[in-house]
Structures are given as structure tokens and as C-alpha cells.
Amino acid sequence: SQPTKILLQLHPYGKKRKLMLTRDVTAVQLAEAMRRDFVANVSHEIRTPLTVLSGFVETMQTIPLEEADRTRYLSLMSQQAQRMQTLVSDLLTLSRLEGSPAPGQGEWIDSGELLQHVVQEARGLSEVIAKPVHTIEPVAGAPVWVAGVKTELLSAMSNLLSNAVRYTPGGGTIRAGWQVRPDGIGEFFVEDTGPGIAEEHLPRLTERFYRVDRSRSRETGGTGLGLAIVKHVAQRHGGQIEVESVLGEGSRFMMLLPASRVRVH
Ligand code: ADP
């Protein structure tokens, strides 16, 4: 819908038919350019771990290795394979979200249950990536019920929490919970004491493969697709994402759901 707006402003007095035609062609060209970008990005993301992986295979085939080195190599290779698996899994999630019609009301779910689930998972992740000093706190408030697709909501919540875990240095604090705003809108929030994000990056964060710091994202197993997934889930439920961040202090990511999908008991 964005390209349409731009063109209508550029040609406000064009003949209607011509305008339609131009608009369609432009939309098609833009879609094509985006598709090309996407394919280039995916290829690049796959090529990197693949290059590392085949490099190790070649080394192991040509040089006899000590047992310790062999073990280390295999572990690094397994990491690269894991990285490709995560990428493919995120790509499939994204394509399912983009390709299927928005869900209806879905089922009413106890948000406390969802929260427990993703907090447990985040604690596990924090141990795996060796930042066990994190405090990951579920924030208990009034019990909130949300209507939607459980797997999608879990996936969005889990992506926001895992970002907080991955970007917050050891010793940091992460708080997450559901609450209802005064206007009835439901808010899932994740606050961290991580590095924060400079303002100029905020509008682009949900673009596929957009990263503020490429190497930091990769180091911690990021695919660059997490926030794109969260955005789609929010939009499919009639909601959106909000971010507040202060460089050097931390970030607060919020997934909002419309009042019609939220109840407090
Ligand atoms: P990635 O897999 O790279 O984390 P995401 O789409 O989840 O991809 O996030 C996009 C980018 O937003 C990240 O690469 C990172 O630069 C930034 N980001 C996301 N969450 C946080 C956070 N909690 N603190 C700091 N930066 C973040």
C-alpha cells in the first residue's frame, strides 16, 4: 500500500486510467525489487555458514587432527549447521505468516501461561549462551486473557524475550509481562538493561534481515528475522509493535493487541 501513496502524490492530476496503469507497474516493479533483495539476502545468510562448514570438512579431510581439535572442529561445524536450521525455520515461519489469511478471533488464552512458557525458555537460552547471571522476571499483574492463535503469540513473545537475553550483557535484568493500558489495549512488554538502540535504527528494526550490529546478531545466533516475525503476528491480530530505547540504558519492546482481544479477570 505504501508505493501507491507515493505515486498518487507525484501525479495528483494524471488521468485516472493512466494513473492506475502507472501505479500497477510501479507496484509490480517495487515488489520485484524487494523479492530480488530478499533472495540476495537469504543466499548471503546461507552462504556464510555453508562456507565455514565446508572449510572445516576440507581441513578434516586433508589434515590428520588431534582428538581435542577434532572435537572442537565438530562442535563449530554443528554450530553452523544449527545456524542454518534456525534460519530455515524462521524463514518458514515468516512465509506461513505472510501467506495465510489473518486468523479470526482464535481462542481465549491465559496470558500468564504464555508468559511462564516463554520465561522458562528464555532462562534456558540465557544458560546456553552463558549469561546465567541474568535476572529474568515475569511481572505478575492482574490476570489478562488474550484472544488469538496460541502458537503465533508464543512465537512473537519468545522472539522479543530471546532478543532481550541475547543483547543484554551478563548481570543485566529483563522484565516481561502482560498488562492492559487505560484505553483497553493489551500490551506484552519486554524491558531490558541492554545496550539500547539509536533512534535512527528504530523505524527499520522490523525489516527482514535489518540488524543494528551484524556481528553481534550473528554471534548470539540471530537470523535478522525475529522482529519481522513479531510484526506479522501483531498485525495479523490487529495490533502492532512499539519500541522505546535509550542508548546505553536499555530497551522496551511492546506487542500491542486491540481491546477486543483482551480481557481482565
Ligand atoms: P536478530 O536475529 O538480528 O536479533 P531481529 O529482527 O530480532 O534480528 O532484531 C533486529 C535487530 O534489532 C537486531 O539485530 C538488533 O540489532 C536489534 N535489537 C533487537 N532487540 C534488541 C534489544 N533487546 N536490544 C538491543 N538491540 C536489539
TrEMBL record:
Main location: membrane
Keyword vocabulary terms for this entry: ATP-binding, Cell membrane, Kinase, Membrane, Nucleotide-binding, Phosphate transport, Phosphoprotein, Transferase, Transmembrane, Transmembrane helix, Transport, Two-component regulatory system
Subcellular location(s) per record: Cell membrane
Domain of life: Bacteria
Molecular functions (GO terms): protein histidine kinase activity
Presence of the UniProt keyword Transmembrane in the record: yes
Record-annotated Histidine kinase domain positions: 41-261
Enzymatic reactions: ATP + protein L-histidine = ADP + protein N-phospho-L-histidine
Keyword Acyltransferase: no
EC number: 2.7.13.3
Annotated function: Member of the two-component regulatory system PhoR/PhoB involved in the phosphate regulon genes expression. PhoR may function as a membrane-associated protein kinase that phosphorylates PhoB in response to environmental signals.
Protein name: Phosphate regulon sensor protein PhoR
Naturally occurring in which organism (per UniProt): Hydrogenophaga palleronii
Parent-protein start and end of this portion: 172 to 436 of 436
